Amino acid sequence: MTRNDSLESLHLEGFDAIQTGHWTLKNDGHSVILQVGSGMAVSGGGLPDVYHTIQLHFHWGRPATNGSEHTVDKRRYPMEMHIVNMKSIHPNMSAALEDPTGLAVLGFFIDVVYAENVHFGHISQKLSSVAYKGQTAKVKPFPLMSLLPKHNMSQYYRYYGSLTTPPCSQVVVWTLYEVPIYISWSQLAQFTSQIFSTEEDAEQVTPLQNNFRHVHPTFSRVVSASKDAKLLKATAGRPLRSAASVLQIILLGSFISGL
């Protein structure tokens, strides 16, 4: 891992605003996705362009196991949230997938405490309406920044990698934030126990669990710490090299992993 002092806080345009209309929450059988429409954009912080925010989604484990897609110092968090942003010059996702930096994904660990996260309730309170695959629900827009650890947004890690779901295209500029979002145990349980990967009328309903991709070694990828992020000592100042295919980032000793 190397320190990159040019990696300052990203500019999150429109994240403090309340959009008009409504957002759509959907269970697609693989995750719960919040489609946020237009009005928000991400730039700066070493990103190569301006990226428009299109959706956010979640990864989790089981009631007794953690399910984040990245790990830090070998720790896997209970959940992880991804905010997906598409480069503004592209008319659609197909075009973005042809660009090595077509997408910018902001990753946030989700950890658990006993107190409810009121802002996260905008999403968790709607989960019962999208318990089964194919179900959708309208969500009243809220300031997306209210979900984020806004006082620690300059602390993150950066690498170039791939999507974590098929087609796993290597087109993503990853920004993984160091400080997690905190939700309650009951809010976590709504994901791990009350969401299903099957349709409501299926003969046998299947809980949607462990919807994260496992850690894989890197392929000549370097992970950079922003100017304010913790520099993991086991790899400080040394670029990471590996001959394995890149799906997730692993740093031996102290490490961050993901894809």
Automatic annotation (TrEMBL):
The keyword Glycoprotein applies. GO terms for cellular component: plasma membrane. It comes from the Eukaryota. It is an enzyme of class 4 (lyase). Gene3D superfamilies: Alpha carbonic anhydrase (3.10.200.10). SUPFAM superfamilies: Carbonic anhydrase (SSF51069). It catalyses: hydrogencarbonate + H(+) = CO2 + H2O. Its cofactor is Zn(2+). Residues 1-227 form the Alpha-carbonic anhydrase domain. Belongs to the alpha-carbonic anhydrase family. Reversible hydration of carbon dioxide. This is Carbonic anhydrase. It comes from Amphiprion percula.
